[in-house]
Design brief:
Strand content of chain A: 15-25%
Strand content of chain B: 5-15%
Largest interface: A-B, 89 and 103 residues
Number of helices of chain B: 35
Distance between the termini of chain A: 30 Å
CATH architecture of the largest domain in chain B: Sandwich
Structural class of chain B: alpha+beta
CATH superfamily of chain A: Alkaline Phosphatase, subunit A
Order of helices and strands of chain A: HHHEHEEEHHEEHHHHEHEEEEEEEEHEE
Radius of gyration of chain A: 23 Å
Helix content of chain A: 25-40%
Distance between the termini of chain B: 75 Å
Radius of gyration of chain B: 37 Å
Oligomer: heterodimer
Chain lengths: 475, 1043
């Protein structure tokens, strides 16, 4: 893969101040502790400089189906699959390296019922019959590709661009580039649908080599939304306030003769923000004010959709309160992984997310938020046309489907194709790097300009290999 | 186009005068060809960019070509790549990539080439490059220049005491800066301890130094601290950051690397011994060649094991590639200060590193094979072990044969399944006998064989034979028999987590470019040393890594020697002379004091490459002894706001390990045990000895910017976030330290000393007094229900005086990981809205991700539970087989009816990884006994947590988790009770237990009711106020900053 050429800045500081038409300056200020702490303050000069050709999304809600949902049974219809069911992969196909090694296994038919939906006539299976109501909003990306054949590499790459740990996650890049829209909540929030641990753990929403300001914060759907948000045992609000006041006094007197050290002031503000967050975060996740109709829209009235429905509703509330990037894990702990019994597994999981995601799209639309909120659906990879253990499918990173809606994407379209069995991406391939680049573009950021200088290298979200897929942007 | 069609025949047909012809051709070029090139090609192949190394703005460049070769052949469009590309005939080479040219445009270019690609005479903006492709300025780049031997400049200032100071003073004079006054003794002693030991000085150490009148006190202190073993513990952290040391694999499973700590101890030992740096480097790169029989040297090659490893990756070749790339990149950064990674796919854009150079460096590592069958023992130890082991084997031959007969076929079966998951080429490598294997066979097959071996390791005989009691009994008997011979069995030798070469020849090292494939031999940076080194293979290894180490260690290596000298400066001042210690290339910073850097490098070389003498010289300088505590003078802010030229000491925040260790010093708990296996970060060992799991870092260390160990880290970040504040303010670990600290202080004065290393000012004492006085305990509203309503003993109700029973934890004996809980209980309601578990008994803080939270809780599920409501379950938090924290809810699938009294028994076993549940209705005679067994993955640690035992709830008040109904009796007993010991009548409970409660008996000592009004155990308000004061001090800016 060729790398892109860089302009050659002299120093890191110069780099930051050049980068991204002003973003860097904002980021630098944040790093020095002069501005906001979760990240830079609301869009100011940066917004003004965003070129017109770039998108207008302000926030992202990424519905991450962890474990790898089958594209072949959801959004990528392959009639040939059912024709060749029971046979081996035709010899014209290159044999892929598979996670579980059953590349000789017979092709598995899709048991789904497929229909065309909306004016656009997108093919969507009955597993997503509710999302299908929004077919004309969906930009379905059928030729996605990743490098990770296993969950660890795949999830890591979908989150950070690399199959290895150590790089900042997409949400961190978005925060670095755009800054925060709020002052009392984190700008990058992650919510899981269970206690399960997302593959690789918290580093999926880590800041990698960037300052920790940009990392994601995990919210719990129930109870205390953020870890350590509650006062410790036996410490009442009054005591907490007394302690903070005493701390502030000590810090003030220490800082009096050290005014040049902006980090000291940054720490003082961090404690105050932590205190305000103790009030703001519970308010953000308190669904008491939501109507029954709204809760029903998200499927909160039914046991199987209640959890993801609640998380989708929380996502909308967080975005309303200025959170930039919300990631909603479904099947935390690789639950979408269906090496066997895919019907049962995917049947249950799709039923848990279909209505809530459809509800989210409806709600965002009726509130006029959809144009500025980019909703993304997908996992770390798709699944193979070949069967595994008789009734499952193995991992397939060489061709899979994601979709985006809202946030200025041109909906009602399929983009890219896989081969007739859905094994390999063929046309308009979108590697994860391209997907990340596209997301940044939809947010109004030129991914080639959003640079973070690390150890002498100008780093980008796409590891210098991505192209934004501009075709899918509404004009 | 018309023009072209008409013009060309003209030229061809008529013998037009030469210059006339040329004029026409040039007109064609200028009007049709050049604009086309400019419009469609220059963007990527012009003055600014040269994609694929091709430039198209002059004929010379086109003829020279790019990565794919010459772009055109004059007069022959069919042989010209340019034409092939624009015609889109080759799918790998379609230009312009976004949109094909129009047919007319393609015809123009073809015609132009056919005409001989005429180009008007104009100056080529030439770039002279030498035979290797380097521009002259690349050769002049500072870090590639020989290390000079600069003499300290003559300076006219009394401030400059040492040679180092003279270099610094010269810059001051040039820039018009004034050095800051010397730090006072208190500031200095604190700085020095943190710099060299990573710990604050104790009160006595501080006072000794402050009160000393010895003019040499400082010098003596420097020597004393350098001689202390604490020095190696601190400085090893820096090295471990660089080599991305961690103790886990890093992928999904993130398995523990149980022997990795020996390398950490090696680094600490080497630094404490002041091992010459060249020896240190060579041992790590090639300890297996330097002195393979010396375990203290061999262990250093653990450096080669630091890459991440994915336990279920079936792409064996791909995984080896990942490992190889990681080894190569890290060596480049750590030892040479260059980011070679950029040159993996193309010549480095900025630095004079050829893609070929990347492959030359890589070639030193291509022979490496990870190997798991080596031991850290001397030949004598190995021999003794083998002898003794033979005796044991001999004596146990028959028993083992019988055991093997039972389990080996099953293990082989599992191993074969793992083998079959690999593709045929890898399986073929595994099938090869050792003498048939080439190096690449060894390397790739390792990954398959390790996965097979993993099946052996995790083979669980108890599970396999669970349903075959006879076989199980036979097996157990055999194992018991085998155990009798344990006295003959030698203790296992320490396993070596190391690597060596697969063979004494290396595999091919193929660099693929569009020009073809090349096998690249080991070599150094072409710019510095174009010749390929002659490397003599050893008996079992290639000798390559020794050759690399020797080159790195050459005294005239301009990179490696400067890099290490700069690192020492960087860690002492917080900023290097080169501010980017891992990047001495174009994108890094240039040295602020190039002469000083060379001076230090020369001193380092002439001093036998010992770090301690380099430290000493730097620490004794006036430069290091400047204060940080001055407000920047106007001119300094204008000229050098970043303090690059050292007009004072730069203020610094403590890093993660310093912060954590300083808290433990303040609380008086720091465990000074040196070396050995790592322990959990929530304990009290020094941070360098805490377990470093890549995916599961210690919360505190992570929040304070400790790296996770994926890539080389040369500079720590220093971030501040509200979530970090929440952790420090509300997190259990910090609060526990504050409580411990409060327990040992007698006064506000003490608290200040322990936390901040000084006495409080009068103003501060006043503030502290006021704070303490304010701290009258504040309680919530009293109970809502009267005691009369709760007459029945054994009734547990939320918002009553009888919410839960809490056991005073201090004198409770340990329960272990095998225990039984027996209870008589009746539930009135389950959680109607959520999944909360109504708790019968627990030893749990309700946390799932730290050691304090290790424990368990038995109860009944609520409405929204994924196990459905009314399910008797146990929640376990402990360590799994990989020492990862495991939280597991284990359902019995036995459902309790509301309002019915049950006799409940739960037997928990970590060794058998299961829980046995037994439930029987009590009030009705002859009801059946319901039982179930459920498995779990927790292996140990259930009694490690900090929660007290609680009956009817969990440690922290949480009404939805409280029992609602009766609990007549509960006992918690170590070990698994046999059926005979179980009894539905609590008065018959005789086995010694950890907790024993019977509602009909008086409340035993140590048990106390906890009500809605607050905790049962009274807290001394004064003590609590002091703990709060200490907690605030541990959060203070002054605690975290050296300023």
């Amino acid at each position: 893969m060729p790398c892109h050429h860089y302009d050659h800045p002299k120093t890191r500081r110069e780099f930051l101040s050049q980068a991204g038409g002003g973003f860097g300056a904002v980021a630098l200020a944040a790093m020095l502790g002069q501005e906001g702490l979760f990240s830079a303050p609301a869009l100011s000069s940066a917004a003004a400089k965003i070129p017109n050709r770039l998108g207008k999304a302000k926030s992202v809600i990424f519905c991450f189906m962890e474990g790898g949902p089958s594209h072949l049974d959801t959004f990528d219809r392959k009639p040939l699959l059912n024709k060749l069911a029971g046979q081996k992969l035709p010899p014209s196909y290159k044999v892929p390296v598979l996670a579980m090694g059953e590349s000789e296994a017979p092709i598995l038919a899709s048991k789904r019922e497929w229909k065309q939906h909306g004016q656009s006539g997108l093919w969507i299976s009955d597993w997503f019959k509710n999302v299908a109501r929004h077919a004309d909003e969906l930009a379905v990306l059928n030729a996605c590709q990743s490098d990770g054949i296993n969950h660890a590499g795949g999830v890591c790459q979908m989150n950070t661009g690399s199959i290895f740990g150590g790089r900042p996650s997409l949400g961190a890049w978005v925060n670095y580039g755009l800054g925060s829209l709020n002052h009392d909540l984190p700008s990058f929030v992650v919510i899981k649908d269970s206690d399960g641990t997302v593959v690789n753990g918290v580093r999926n929403w880590g800041a990698g080599f960037m300052p920790a300001i940009y990392q994601g914060t995990e919210f719990n759907g129930e109870g205390t939304p953020v870890k350590y948000l509650d006062n410790p045992k036996s410490v009442t609000d009054i005591v907490q306030r007394q302690k903070l006041d005493f701390l502030a006094k000590l810090n003030k007197s220490y800082g009096a003769t050290r005014k040049d050290n902006t980090e000291l002031e940054g720490r003082i503000r961090a404690y105050e923000l932590a205190y305000t967050m103790q009030a703001a975060a519970p308010e953000a996740v308190d669904l008491g004010g939501e109507s029954e109709a709204t809760k029903k829209l998200y499927g909160m009235d039914q046991p199987h959709t209640a959890v993801y429905g609640r998380n989708c509703l929380l996502a909308r509330r967080l975005v309303e309160r200025g959170v930039r990037f919300v990631q909603l894990y479904s099947g935390a702990g690789s639950k979408w992984d269906s090496h066997a019994k895919i019907e049962e597994n995917h049947g249950r999981l799709t039923a848990a997310v279909d209505l809530p995601i459809a509800g989210l799209l409806s709600d965002l639309k009726q509130r006029g938020m959809l144009d500025e909120t980019l909703v993304i659906w997908g996992g770390e990879f798709g699944r193979t046309p070949m069967s595994e253990q008789g009734d499952g499918r193995d991992h397939n990173p060489t061709g899979f489907t994601m979709w985006m809606a809202g946030g200025g994407v041109k909906g009602g379209c399929n983009y890219g194709t896989t081969d007739e069995l859905g094994l390999y991406a063929m046309q308009d391939k979108l590697h994860v790097h391209d997907i990340h680049s596209t997301i940044l573009h939809l947010l109004g950021v030129d991914h080639t300009k959003l640079i973070y200088q690390h150890k002498g290298r100008p780093e980008r979200i796409d590891m210098n290999e991505g192209n934004a897929f501009e075709q899918m942007m509404a004009v | 186009m018309n023009k072209l069609l008409t013009a060309m025949p003209l030229i061809a047909t008529f013998a037009v005068a030469a210059d006339d012809n040329e004029r026409k051709v040039m007109a064609f070029f200028e009007k049709d060809v050049r604009p086309l090139l400019i419009e469609r090609c220059y963007e990527c192949h012009g003055e600014k960019k040269q994609k694929g190394s091709l430039r198209m703005d002059h004929i010379t460049y086109l003829l020279e070509g790019g990565e794919s070769g010459p772009a055109l052949v004059k007069g022959d469009p069919e042989k010209s790549l340019l034409i092939e590309a624009v015609r889109y005939h080759n799918s790998d080479l379609e230009m312009p990539p976004k949109e094909k040219l129009a047919d007319k445009q393609i015809a123009i270019l073809a015609q132009w080439v056919k005409l001989g690609a005429p180009w008007p005479e104009e100056k080529v903006k030439t770039v002279a490059v030498d035979e290797f492709g380097f521009k002259p300025e690349a050769r002049k780049f500072w870090s590639f220049q020989p290390i000079r031997n600069p003499q300290p400049p003559a300076v006219n200032t009394k401030w400059a005491e040492t040679n180092i100071d003279k270099f610094v003073a010269k810059k001051h004079a040039e820039l018009g800066l004034q050095p800051a006054p010397q730090a006072d003794k208190r500031e200095l002693v604190r700085r020095l301890y943190f710099s060299l030991h990573g710990l604050p000085p104790t009160k006595a150490q501080t006072e000794d130094f402050v009160s000393s009148t010895d003019p040499k006190a400082y010098e003596k202190l420097v020597d004393e601290l350098l001689a202390s073993p604490r020095y190696g513990e601190r400085w090893a952290q820096h090295w471990l950051d660089l080599v991305r040391y961690a103790e886990s694999d890093g992928y999904n499973q993130d398995a523990l690397r149980p022997d990795a700590w020996r390398y950490r101890d090696y680094v600490i030992r080497s630094l404490n011994e002041d091992k010459p740096y060249d020896q240190f480097v060579k041992e790590q790169l090639a300890g297996d060649e330097v002195d393979p029989d010396n375990p203290d040297v061999l262990v250093a090659t653990s450096y080669l094991r630091n890459p991440i490893y994915e336990y279920n990756q079936r792409d064996a070749k791909g995984q080896y590639e990942v490992v190889l790339t990681d080894m190569t990149d890290n060596a480049g950064e750590v030892f040479l200060g260059l980011s070679f990674g950029c040159a993996r796919c193309h010549d480095h854009k900025f630095d004079p590193i050829l893609q070929k150079d990347y492959y030359r460096l890589r070639a030193f590592f291509t022979p490496v094979r990870w190997q798991d069958n080596m031991y850290l023992a001397t030949p004598k130890q190995k021999e003794d072990w083998a002898k003794q082991n033979a005796i044991w084997e001999d004596a146990t031959k028959e028993i083992r044969a019988q055991i093997d007969a039972m389990i080996e076929p099953r293990i082989q079966n599992a191993m074969h399944k793992a083998y079959e998951k690999f593709q045929a080429d890898i399986r073929a490598m595994v099938d090869k006998k050792p003498h048939e294997r080439a190096p690449e066979d060894w390397q790739a097959s390792y990954f398959c064989e390790r996965q097979m071996e993993y099946e052996r390791e995790r083979f669980d005989i108890a599970k396999t034979l669970a349903k075959k009691p006879e076989e199980k009994a036979k097996y157990d008997a055999l194992v018991a028999e085998l155990k009798k011979f344990d006295h003959l069995k030698p203790a296992p030798l320490p396993k070596a987590f190391v690597a060596t070469d697969a063979m004494n020849v290396g595999p091919k090292n193929i660099l693929k470019t569009r020009k073809g494939e090349q096998d690249i031999a080991p070599g150094f940076l072409t710019l510095l040393e174009p010749k390929e080194p002659v490397i003599k293979p050893r008996e079992r290894t290639t000798g390559r890594r020794s050759a690399l180490a020797d080159w790195i260690n050459r005294a005239d290596n301009p990179l490696s020697n400067r890099v290490i000298a700069n690192r020492v400066w960087h860690y002492l001042f917080g900023k290097g002379i080169v501010e980017t210690p891992n990047d001495f290339g174009e994108l890094g910073e240039e040295p602020t004091h190039p002469e000083l850097l060379d001076y230090l490098t020369q001193r380092f070389l002439s001093g036998g490459r010992k770090l301690k003498s380099l430290h000493r010289e730097i620490l004794l300088s006036a430069t290091y002894r400047q204060t940080a505590h001055i407000l920047p003078p106007e001119n300094a802010l204008k000229i050098d706001p970043g303090n690059k030229y050292l007009w004072r000491f730069s203020p610094r925040r403590l890093d993660a390990e310093q912060s954590r260790d300083a808290m433990l010093m303040a609380s008086g708990e720091l465990n000074d045990k040196a070396g050995g296996p790592s322990e959990d970060g929530n304990g009290t060992r020094r941070s360098v000895y805490t377990i470093k799991k890549r995916n599961n870092q210690n919360e505190m260390l992570r929040a304070m910017d400790a790296p996770a160990g994926f890539v080389s880290t040369s500079e720590r970040l220093s971030t501040t976030t509200p979530t970090q504040a929440l952790l420090l303010l509300n997190g259990d670990w910090t609060i526990a330290r504050a409580q411990q600290m409060a327990a040992r202080v007698n006064s506000i004065e003490d608290a200040w000393h322990y936390a901040l290393g000084r006495s409080p000012t009068a103003e501060e004492v006043k503030m502290a007094d006021e704070f303490m006085a304010q701290r009258i305990p504040v309680t919530d509203a009293p109970a809502k229900l009267s005691t009369e309503e709760l007459a029945t003993a054994g009734l547990f109700k939320v918002d009553s005086p009888q919410e839960r029973l809490v056991v005073d934890g201090e004198e409770v004996p340990a329960l272990g990981d095998e225990f039984t809980v027996e209870a008589i209980a009746k539930l009135d309601t389950y959680d109607p809205v959520a999944a909360a578990v109504r708790t019968i008994a627990s030893h749990w803080t309700n946390q799932k991700d730290n050691v304090e939270g290790f424990g368990w809780s038995i109860g009944v599920t609520g409405e929204k539970s994924r196990f459905k409501p009314r399910n008797l379950i146990i929640q376990l938090v402990g360590e799994d087989e990989n020492s990862n924290i495991a939280y597991e809810a284990v359902p019995s699938d036995l459902r309790l009816e509301l309002g019915v009294k049950y006799h409940i028994v739960v037997k928990v076993s970590c060794s058998q990884h299961h829980v046995e549940f037994r439930v029987q209705q009590i009030d009705k005679p002859n009801t059946p006994v319901l039982t179930s067994v459920a498995t779990h993955s927790v292996r140990r640690g259930l009694d490690k947590g900090e929660a007290p035992y609680v009956i009817g709830g969990v440690a922290k008040r949480s009404p939805s988790h409280h029992w609602d109904g009766m609990i007549d009796a509960v006992r918690i007993v170590p070990g698994l009770l046999g059926d005979k010991a179980i009894n539905a009548r609590p008065e018959m409970w005789k086995t010694p237990s950890v907790v024993h409660w019977n509602a009909k008996e008086p409340l035993p000592l140590g048990l106390a009711w906890s009500s809605a009004a607050g905790e049962a155990l009274p807290v001394d308000p004064k003590k609590q106020a002091m703990a709060d004061l200490c907690h605030v001090l541990l959060n203070a800016n002054e605690f975290f900053y050296l300023h």
